[in-house]
Amino acid sequence: MERKKHIVKIYVLQTPPQLQMDSVKGFINILDNSEKKIYNNFLVEKRKIEFLLGRILLKVILSEELNTSISRIMLEKNYYGKLYLSGSIDKGPLFFNLSHTNGMLVCGVNRMGEIGVDVERVEKNILNVMNGIFLSDEVNYVKSQETLEKSNVAFFKVWTRKESYMKLKGKGFSIDPKSFLVPCTEGYSQTQNIFYESLNYSNKFMISTAVNKVDPNIRPNFIFKTIDYNKLLNSIKNLT
Question: Which residue intervals define the domain 4'-phosphopantetheinyl transferase in the entry (predicted)?
């Protein structure tokens, strides 16, 4: 009997620099009416672009995973804002999560349980907020790094793991980030029964993913896939 596999896919899209609204506004019809309201409420063009591209990325990925047209991909939110599939698409369970910041968009897909993803730009001069959001073991891990640069990277590894956990649970910041401990050096939390995977992308962004352990004999295989911006937009024509 073939051994069961736990594949977790993380799709990464970095938008072109100085991307203008004219380049993407022709795809607004990919949004449903409720999404268009959210889109129109953004006052800053950059936020509009990121929201629209996030929905494009998500709906293209889901339509390919489910082998269906984009028009059939209907999304809803839970009380805390986590997206999930609605409608009558019967292609087996499919869990996903989306995160974006500063022109970087990440979508995680998991067929064996809930998933949380987070991406953050690795910034400087951020360590002073640690005591307010990290537990002592997490603070000590960041401080133990050899250089300030490595401490900054370690900070965002811990922080994105915390956010991925909160998003996995589907409750976001209603969960106090100091109410739980994430593994800093390992990828598995026995207490939470959760696997974590982190990637320092291009030495500029930290991406973390969290998924539940579904089988004592199976360790998830996290596969990162970089998405080409132009190919993404072209693929919409084939999936609508």
Answer: 115-192
